[in-house]
Amino acid sequence: MRRSENDSHAATVALPFRRMTAKPRDAIKSFAPLIWDSLVRFERDDGWAIASHVALSGLLAIFPFLIFVTALAAFLGAGEASGAAVRLIFETWPAGVATPLATEVQKVLTTPRGGVLTVGVLLTLWVSSSAVESLRIALGRAYASPTSKPFWLARLQSIWFVMLGAFGLITVAFLIVLWPILWGFAIDYTSNAFPEYAAALVGLETVSTIARYAVTMVVVAAALTAMHLWLPGGKRRVRDVLPGVALTVALWLGGATLFGVYLARFANYASTYAGLAGIMTAIVFLNVSAALFILGAEFNAAIVARRRKRAEAARAA
């Protein structure tokens, strides 16, 4: 009797542990087929070819876009935010990619030019919006739902996206410029009014830096969500696109870190491309980033397809 009681007690104690270990196993079993389906769909939809198109369009668009951002920031009286906007874009990129590209961007932005917001604005917006159009094509293929908008309306929407992105980037950059000033004021005020808390506030400066990166990631996730919702044809709910957005951001953060290690330890693009090494490194990085963006859309499409099959099976039963 005592042995059976002990066995029963052991089984009772072990049951929660089995459930805890079963949940990750079940999650992996359900997640792995979705990833496989996403990869199959990615290959079927010519994901690498579309990613190359997106990468090249993005590289061609980044200079006109930042020129427009700089001119717009000066027009709004927030010229100091333009440099922060450039840093905001490139600070999350691997150093081997961001440094040469940011150097060339700074050369372009410091070149005097007139009429960017008058005569040249349409050309600048048109070139920048071409990158949005490439993203529209990628999402339309992934969701099997190309846009039904007329060409002119789709292009106007892309230009609106560029302008919205420019305003959003300037706003976030302005807050980043303003934040150290406010933080310094808070430290000075606390040192005078509450000196016992001053040391603790200074110690939180690292937390503020982490919060800045977190804000950047939130802005990126919000932009990705808007693209998934509005660029391709058809209608989707926010909860339908969030899994792919989360997957893209997670893979991009991990991929950017690994790509930085790869550039630092293994890659030697200079031996292959000579003076074009910097630009070729950027193209490779943008190509991989575009592929991860498309993979996120394919992941969402795989989830929707699986959900649809379950619903059809339930109706048939």
Kindly describe this structure.
This protein is mostly helical and 317 residues long. It has one domain. The protein is built from eleven helices and no strands. Helix 1 (2-44) crosses helix 11 (277-316) and helix 8 (205-230) crosses helix 9. It comes from Methylopila jiangsuensis.
Layout of SSEs?
Elements: H1 2-44, H2 47-75, H3 80-90, H4 95-109, H5 121-142, H6 151-193, H7 195-203, H8 205-230, H9 238-265, H10 270-273, H11 277-316
Helix pairs in contact: 1-11, 2-3, 2-5, 2-6, 2-11, 3-4, 3-6, 4-11, 5-6, 6-7, 6-8, 8-9, 9-11
Calculate Rg over CA atoms. 25 Å
Helix count equals 11
What string, H for helix and E for strand, traces the elements in order?
HHHHHHHHHHH
The termini sit apart by 48 Å
Number of beta-strand segments: 0
Ranges where pLDDT stays below 50 over 5 or more residues in a row are: 8-17
Approximate helicity band: over 70%
Percentage of β-strand residues? under 5%
Q: Supply the helix-strand structural class.
A: mainly alpha
Shape: globular
Mean pLDDT: 78
Describe the biggest sheet?
none
Give the total of domains.
Answer: 1
